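User: Round two. Same drill as before: sequence, then structure, for each protein.

Assistant: Same drill it is. First protein:
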Amino acid sequence: MAGRYAPKTVLAHLIQRRNQTYSEIVAEFVELGGTITERHLRRLASGERAGTTPQTRRTLQRLFGKPVEELLSPYVAEPAAQVVPAPAASGRITTGNEMEVLDMAASRARAFALAAQSGLGSEAMEQVYDDVRHAAQAYPQRPLPEILGQLVETQDLVFGLLESRQRPENHRQLYFLAGVTGGLLAKASHDLGNPHAALTQARTAFMCADNADHHGLRAWVRGLQSLVSYWAGNPHDSVRYAQLGAGYAEQANSTTSVWLPVSEARAWAALGNPEATRAALERAEEAWNSVHNDDLDDMGGLCTFGRNRQLYYAADALAQLPGEVEQAQRYSSQAVDAYTDQNHPEWAFGDAAGSHAAMAITRIASGELDGAADALAPVLTLPTERRINGVVHSARRVHQALRQSGRADDARELQEEIESFTRTPMQSFPR
């Protein structure tokens, strides 16, 4: 039975009134088509966590008959007895949204398949792979609030599987998946402006890559560490991480062998070293001659590095160097064009925004203030849930370029628009 403590949330109070254990609540949750761990439920009930996926919110509401905002609000004792709603009765589905119903059914089937086996079989392992692959592919294209809850739950699932008794042959695969989910959460922490949490996730992800003995994964995590350090204003660390991953990338021959040198190029540019920047960009281009996709690349999305991202990184690097304006213009134009098609598998809203910002900076350097405003316009219309850390920093660089151009008075309106944009970055999620 749930302990008789003073409940901190309405959810905890309702669970206590039901006279049930948390595991029994989780079982009912699964019966209604949801997926949640006992630890996650306890953290929600204790008020430690407020972020939930849309599916979790729907299932909680069905189970307790109250909106999630009310369930997670602080509990205030009332003299009158509260009636606890009974679990939703089975029967006719009345949501009116067939896709939601199918998602709930798929989630229920997934939970059953994983719970029904003491050791993961091939079908269950395929399901875990599919969960991680789906997160990797969705990450660059969907707002973080839509996928973060599921990503956290997936990491919790993989960690739980590693902590439980599994067949020895499954451990390497699970450590690989743990490394990928840790890397995705490192990127999520970075996108929310928390480099400390990002590097903590990345260190654990690298440990998992070691346990999986996967060179491509090791190199990929080093790339993430280089990315986090670059945007955190630590270009020397960014160079160091990129160079630390180079040996692993060479052995893997995956797309990380392109990502790492082009990441190094951005950091050298931030340090004002054009020679090292150009040399790193050349190494990145040459690396394509030996690239062979590995199983990490096959995950897709954030787990692979394509030509479009290379164009953006090159534009971002060269835009920082006063002597490379012509080359920066060429790369930024190609990058903007590459990210025009939002249906392209490589499309990523963050990289598209960065490409536009790089184009704006090159136009400022050429004295084209109206052209710079046109280039940045798609960035400044991004909704709050897409104003991730890198996007906000890219916009601030445009602001800085305007200040340094000597024509700040002529671009006052654009500067004010950038200031308004950067005042409301994505920092939290709706409950």
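Second protein:
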Amino acid sequence: MVAAIIPVILCGGSGSRLWPASRDSFPKQFLTLVGSDSLFQATVRRVAGAGYGAPIVITGADYRFLVAEQMRALGIEGDIVLEPLRRDSCAAIAAAAEIALRRDPAALVLVLAADHAIPDAASFRDHVERGRIAAEAGRIVTFGIRPDRPATGYGYIRPGRPVEGAEGVNAIAAFVEKPDLATAERYLADGYLWNSGNFLFSARVFLDELARLAPTIAGPVREAVQKASRDLDFLRLDGEAFGQATAKSVDYAVMEKTDRAAVVPSDFAWSDIGAWSAIWELAEKDADGNAASGEAVFVGARNCYVGSPDLLTAVIGLDDVVVVTTKDAVLVTARDRAEEVKSVVQQLTAARRREATEHRMSYRPWGNFESIDRGTRYQVKRITVHPGGKLSLQSHLHRSEHWVVVSGTAQVTVGDDVRLLTENQSIYIPLGAVHRLENPGHIPLEIIEVQSGPYLGEDDIRRYEDDYRRT
């Protein structure tokens, strides 16, 4: 019987080059940019079913409930592993390999980035099968994409001799850094491949190579897994041990040093979604080359992209332009300069602008809230609580609140008073009162909250009880 491949999905990072849609509080892997799934969900779905085991998802504590909710929506279960801090890709992959090895001593591990787009899942899985024989024979396999243009934003791989006994797999002669245009054109002519950053290997082989080539990563990560603790449905790596691991990418730590590296030259469609221009390339276009997500009108425009889920956006007489709108920001850029969006985020961050990192919509394990309006001493929010969801039992030092039920049923605790509120009913939460909001019903609960007081920050919360262990 052929052993199932264990998918490992790396689900960190902020994706600032896709601002304003992608921000630290809700990064690009959780956005629906191509198709009907988020990038993360599409990655999980791509490796679900026959031949694959339950996935191991490596993420940070800030994203744990987002990961859990999006996996629940797919009906797919797996291990969600929490990194206590970012130590680059190698430590994350090593932790997943240690966990996979404990699940199955003969485990084959398939490492995938959560924010890549691969539209043809069947073709991708065919390429994985090509790499399986080499991985079972002790090779650490990556997937090199045959380039269709001289891209300067990717690292490249120079394939070497064919791997004996593994048709369609080559040894790796060299990894090379992102080139300038002239060098990229030469790489294209010489048969180099784009480095996709996805890997297939035996967990045991990878960990043995890591111990040999990068012991300052292997030892601390092994200890972090051994000392890991359960937190609800999550596995939390030990922070002290994990923090001792050297921060280094898997390419630098292992792939460029090992003599076991191999590559599957691959021709499935692939994009790392590094900029809005990549979304345009993947999107369905009209006769003039225009593409849109949301409502858009194009008049005399060509080869433009509009991402506008909340607003009707019109583009007139422009060529090769990207327009992206959210409820609190608008981006307009030449399509060939879309990668410079990161510099905008840097400027906003330096100016301490909330828009650099936070959305108006914030997600919580019980639901979400959206800031609708804000002034000097007040803020209005729309709060949605999932059926069965329950906010923490809490109080505020600086603000009072009014709640109005828009739809659904609310169970509200204020001090010793517990009552049910339905549509159009309201309640006042005095300053300092211990209170809680719950949804005991079977449909989402939606309320409008009006806060008033001298300070309205999210850190003005004292929690007494919390189903999600945030006390």
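The mean pLDDT is 94.

User: Perfect.
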